[in-house]
Amino acid sequence: MSSKSIIKGRGAQRNIHNRFFELSHEMRDDFLEYCHKEGEVVDKNKTQYLNVFPKTIVNKVKSPDVGMAYSMDMYQGCEHGCIYCYARNSHEFWGFSAGLDFERKILVKKDAPKLLEDLLKKKSWKAHTIVMSGNTDCYQPAEQKFQLTRKCLELFLKYKHPVAIITKNALILRDIEILKALAEDNLISVNISITSLSEDTRRILEPRTATIKRRLQTVKELSDNGIPVNVMLAPIIPSINSHEILPMAKAVSEAGALGIAHTVVRLNGAIGEIFSDWIKKTLPDRADKVLHQIENCHGGTLNESRYGVRMRGEGQIAKQINDLMALARLKYFRGKTMPKLNTSLHEQYKDGQMKLF
């Protein structure tokens, strides 16, 4: 793919049709060629922040195989631009494309802290671990501007409520004092996503994320401060990062991680088209091989929706990946375990301070 045709700093290389729309928008090659000859900028590649106002912020998770009961997202869409991200499909529900729109039109829920506090104060609410974020990264670049994640963490601390975080951004270290205070009462766990030890791989898979070196440093700094860290080696993509499972497990264990988890990549909905377009442009020499190996993990298709199967895959390649993960746990995580978070304190702090009587 020529450098002129690459949309720099983005994962998806185009917008694809929103399946809920009858009409579609197409950028024709002859128009692009004309603009190039005339020196005109077709696409300024800017990120937009759009305010949205949901009535609730915490969602009950009904899927039985994702390891969480409740989740919340302060932002919809994600500027990190990870090409494989399952959350891309959700952007279509908001009327946008799962392609470039997902990375460039970020929906901001400015009322998230108020909505969260209203929930935590309800007499009917019983403490369950709430995960930030079940869909898009709560420490994506938008967080630097809006600080909604930080405000919500302050509320979890105020009301002594357990919270878990999933992120691949070192910005989490900005809030380390809040995290340390939560950890004193066993109210926090952090999941850091690391998909490769190669910067070349990271840059094309996850163009606007923290560097691998910075993420490993984040695991170490959190762990050194008593904050339990699990590392998500996810997704594992055959012939892209599948050969790195043992080296990644070793590196994160040495950095202080207490556990690892993984998924085998699956390309449901619009993601199959977005990923296929991306890999044929960025890795044309191995595109067909990778796509066929992904299909081998999911019964001959890029899609997999069956609970209990979709995360681990089937077939010989998936078995090799799962066996390597089992070996990695035996080799590098023997005797390590993530703590179960404390749900017993919140009832005493329903009004934000301990009840004396």
Automatic annotation (TrEMBL):
User: Which InterPro entries does the annotation name?
Assistant: Elp3/MiaA/NifB-like_rSAM (IPR006638), MJ0683-like (IPR040086), rSAM (IPR007197), rSAM_sf (IPR058240)
The cross-references to CDD domains, in alphabetical order and at most eight, read: Radical_SAM
Which keywords does this chain's UniProt record carry?
Iron, Iron-sulfur, Metal-binding
* Highest taxon listed in the record's lineage: Bacteria
Show where the Radical SAM core domain sits: 64-301
Tell me where the transmembrane regions lie. Answer: none
Cited PROSITE patterns:
RADICAL_SAM
NCBIfam families this protein is in?
A: rSAM_PA0069
> Which protein, by its recorded name, is this?
PA0069 family radical SAM protein
